[in-house]
Amino acid sequence: MRINGQPWFDTDGNVIHAHGGHMLRHGEFWYWYGEDRRDDNYVSCYRSTDLKNWENRGAVLTVNSKTMPMPVRSDLTIKRNVEGVEDRIDGLNVIPASKGKVNIERPKVLYCERTKTFVMWAHYENGVNYSAASVCIATCDTPDGDFIYRGSFRPYGNMSRDCTLFLDDDGEAYFISSSRDNADLKIYRLTADFMNVDEDVRTLFQGMHREAPAVLKRNGKYIMLTSMCTGWAPNQCGFSVSDSMAGRWSMLENFGDETTFDSQPAFILTLDDGRYIYFADRWGGPGEKYFTSTYVALEIKFTENGAPYIEYCENSAI
Ligand code: GAL
């Protein structure tokens, strides 16, 4: 049994680094993608048949990943040019210029049935500060192969930071991200190949600074979880409900306690048996503390009215 907030280990006995992640089921496996900031890595991938034993499939996106342009004109910088750049302090973070890494956060992957391609969307920053506020895309023919980096851009020119992807039952995919310096949260419908935004369908929570979006669908209703915007410090998560992605979303109501049990949403896992799992990060903090970040997985329960809630439990739900 895994314990929430304790290090989790892969089948080789190494600590799992897949932060701000996402799980995708494909064939007999669940694939767990997440941030891995060690060495030259950006995005890690683990796979499992039972959501308990995780086999490390290696880093699927690194500073050395191949790049390839796409029709969306994007910035293909995957490694920062370090010439003349010195280590610097950005808020509480020490940014080591020597590593020459950009910052790739909250990777999410969907399989596009139409193009038979695994498409990753993530939050892109230049590795020095959070001014790029862009999304980046990477693609692969297999779930755990070497993803090809397709570049970063701002959807319709909008700033884009914390983000998620959601695939609806009708095959439509959505990208949701914090916009306008995190003040608003935007929902975009994607093109049929999942390689671009096709429509800016809704702007939610005007001026409310929401982050870490995660969506589930249950009994025809869409439920979105979001956190407040307080950096690495945990805060009160909220939920909102809608009859459609592009429709009207309800006012935020509290989800979990004032620190959401010391966690911030990464994604929601939808299981075949009808259960939904709130999967979250318990962040270690900035700098080296980041690497002590752990995970919290709790089953989402629902009231008679369909409102989601969680109760804290030491044992992880997966
Ligand atoms: C959080 C965000 C994380 C990371 C962090 C950096 O608010 O959810 O993904 O960007 O800020 O301070």
N-to-C SSE series? EEEEEEEEEEEEEEEEEEEEEE
Rg from alpha-carbon coordinates:
18 Å
List the uncertain runs: none
The number of distinct β-strands equals 22
Would you spell out the secondary-structure blueprint of this structure?
Layout (H helix, E strand, L loop, with lengths): L18 E8 L2 E7 L5 E8 L6 E8 L25 E3 L2 E3 L7 E10 L4 E9 L8 E7 L7 E6 L9 E5 L5 E7 L4 E7 L6 E8 L6 E8 L2 E7 L9 E6 L10 E3 L8 E7 L5 E7 L11 E9 L5 E2 L9
The structure holds beta-D-galactopyranose.
Task: Using brief descriptors, characterize the structure shown.
binds beta-D-galactopyranose; Tachylectin-2, Chain A; mainly beta; 4-stranded antiparallel β-sheet; 318 residues; 46% strand; 0% helix
What does this structure look like?
By secondary structure, the protein is mostly beta strands. The protein has a single domain (19-309), classed as Glycosyl hydrolase domain, family 43 (Tachylectin-2, Chain A). It has no helices and 22 strands. It has strands spanning 19-26, 29-35, 41-48, 55-62, 88-90, 93-95, 103-112, 117-125, 134-140, 148-153, 163-167, 173-179, 184-190, 197-204, 211-218, 221-227, 237-242, 253-255, 264-270, 276-282, 294-302, 308-309. Strand 15 (211-218) and strand 16 (221-227) form a beta hairpin. The mean pLDDT is 95. The site of beta-D-galactopyranose (GAL) has 10 residues, from strand 7 and strand 15. The site of beta-D-galactopyranose has 10 residues, from strand 7 and strand 15.
